[in-house]
Amino acid sequence: MVDKRLAYQETFDCVQCGYCLPACPTYQTMNKETHSPRGRINLVKMAAEGKISYDDLKEPIDMCLGCRACETACPTNVQYGSILESAKEVLRIETKRSKRERFIESALFEKLLPHSSMLAIAKFGLLSYQRLPLQFVARKTGILNVVLPKGMVAFESIIPMAERSKEKKAYEEDAPQGTVKVAYFLGCLMDTMFSTINDQAIQLLRKAGVHVTVVKDQSCCGALQSHGGDLKTARQLAKKNIEAFESGSFDYIVSSIGGCGAMLVEYDHLLKDEPAWKERAERFSKKHADISMVLAQSNLTYNHHVHHTAVYQPSCHMTHVQKNVDAPLELIAKVPGLNYVPMDKQDLCCGSAGIYNIVNYEASMDILDYKMPAVVSAKPNLIITTNPGCHLQMKMGVEREGMSHQIQVKHLVEVIAESCL
Amino acid sequence: MNENRNATELVQRLRAKQLINESRILTSLSDRASYAYDASFGHHIPEVVIQPTATEEVSEIVTLANELHVPVYPRGQGTSLSGGPIPVYGGVVLDFSQWDDRLEIYPDDMIAVVSPGVITGHIDEAAKAFSMMYPPDPSSMNVSTIGGNLAENAGGPRGLKYGVTKDYVLGLEIVTANGDIIRTGGQTVKNVTGYDLTKLIVGSEGTLAVITEATLKLVPRPKANKTMLVLFDDLIDSGKAISAILREGITPSKLEIMDQASIKAVEAYQPTGLPIDVEALLLIEIDGHPLAIEEEAEQVRGCCLKNGAREVQIAKSAEEASKFWQARKLVSPAIVQVKPTKISEDATVPRSKIPEMFRILKEIKNANNIDLVVFGHAGDGNLHPNIIADVRDEEEMKRVEKAVGEIFEAAIELGGTLSGEHGIGTMKAPFMEMELGAKGLAMMKTVKESFDPNNILNPGKIFPEKGQKLVLRDG
Predict the structure, then answer these.
(1) How far is A181 from chain B (nearest CA, A)?
(2) What SS3 class is residue B375?
(3) Is the pLDDT of residue B282 over 50?
(4) What is the pLDDT of residues B241-253, one digit of tens each?
(5) Which of A83, A157, A168, B258 is spaced 20 to 30 A from B48 at the CA atom?
(6) Domains (range + CATH), chain B
(7) What are the φ/ψ torsions at residue B227 (nearest 5 degrees)?
(8) Which stretches make up the FAD-binding PCMH-type domain (chain B) (predicted)?
């Protein structure tokens, strides 16, 4: 009997040509077919047929970044994302997860991400932690090494300072202007750790003559839950967002986060089996646009020179899921003074991949170390990113190379803001 | 069962020698299952996968395998379309994909020396830096390893003008079935010292020896190229045009054909503006000196128009050329939109028989009620009839098996061959006698037995088992 919970029929679309192999970061760093897209599809098929156990399937699936570069490389349009998603969901039910995995997931998924009040508290916690001598004490005493998994400890030192805000930021409705109306999607991590980027994004949109609304009751996009196989929560969050963004009539739903945007454009896929939501989800997904797409089409004026030599690290989910490749490069080209240098391995995942770099810290660092020489040899003093996860990972990469004083990491929005605001 | 136990002993003894790092000896089920297949049909899980990165390691493994009678299956990146690396009798898969440390270009000798796991496309890239070229260009060249290309004697679109893999091999380092390390050929174009074992090993599909290093010939890189797209209302006319071009003294570097079914599939999938009422489309690339190809392009245009071409377009820029080639690239994704299983054949006929082959293919398609599109390297007679089916449909797959057999028969009847570039492997083994005759095949078997008396090197390939038939269905 075939396990129908796995995307078994989809595995037949793979003709096993192997064209995905060079595109797969884990095949490059783990050096075996088991950790390639073709290998994983074969194993999912075998697991569905009962020829291997779920435990046999677990490691190869856990080690997948979910960067989806294989989908772009695939000549026959295999829906790898669906196959991976089904495997994650089944493995979540059928196999035992390590203590570490459960600890990180419950901390993030169940408590933090979906609840804005919890995020506010977390933000306050982060804020007070960073402003008090506690951070210093914790770092010195190594107390974090005991409490937190290695990955979290490593990243603790590069997490940006949360801004001091006494209350939850209120995004004022602007006076109706412009012909284009957009609803802005904040994203929970972005709203916590990188909220100035959201502020700048909204300012840029308004400067470009776009009417921006920050819809109330919007929620976490559900991407991390979906990557972890918790599709139930992901679907609930999707519905919450669809409802929230139906509160007005908008031309676009705009986000500045590659990963969240990828989740939003796949709400239609996520809710395809729920008749009451299918159409609403399709409408929602169709309206999503990354901020770079809106700004690239606008007649924003670039006032200030930004004197940097920059490389661009595209977010995998922006490239391979949102299929937004040209707009960020068009914007980069418009910034006066900015010397953009294309780098080798540009499309290779940095190894961040949601919470992959925390759960699979060593594997993630292998990928980062495989990527960084290409960054370094392009001799930049700025790395431009489009996703907070990549942002932190690239900062980590710079730190590991011992180049924190030479190379800055900035979100594309920050670079545009430097020139335009 | 016996083989199973022997494979276990092989691993134990290999581990005891501590020659190969434990991380390159793969024994878990998920790892072994990941080397059970290639890009064709069939699924057999080996007892162990070993990833050698040195000749001495291969020698040691093969020595043990020969002593214990354990089958050894060399594998590159598993892009074979004929079952070349599938471990049909279990045993050891030698995964060469991780052995890519040597890629050296010697510009003064115009040669490259490579490890077996080097990606084919990387050789040409490295040669490019010295204004040279490694011409063989199988469509999987960005994935496939040179070791696999050598074993299968891979070809590609450039075959028409530049030949195939064997035309670029000057020398090899091989490990024989008893574990000896020997060198064949050398570094020079001229070399008549004894039997040409190099050419015998190339294309022997890993059944005679294991290739551990190759010395390859490079050629000067053409300074320019030009791409043309030609439309024909009548398929027969396209065949006549091809002959006319070649008789004119022009050898295009690529000469590809797409039939009406492939054009229709591409247009339905991603409209590129091609007319769907033409019977054939030719993509022609000529290369050479910029001034020479200007003139040749006009000659090609003349040949086509004189022979009934509806339209000849010459690309004005590299971008336009790549737009032309896009149509050809889209054939594969386009044809699997309807059904997922693709059976890609490479039966090859003498150039003049192409129109006749097309006619017969149409008959086979109708008689068996199968989905068949034809494209391929028209210039050298190497067509790719592709059958589109669904492996889950047992009844349909039986019809497909019958049709494949008929395609082979037709090719041989027209004076052609079973395989132009994909190799025999498991897929075409049942048809070998049809082409070679019983005595011809027996001669090959004698060669095999003298190289590999214990039949440990890639057993189950090329030579059919008694009563073996083509089976594309699972089970």
Answers:
(1) 32
(2) strand
(3) yes
(4) 999 999 999 999 9
(5) A83
(6) 1-221 (3.30.465.10), 224-413 (3.40.462.10)
(7) -115, 140
(8) 41-221
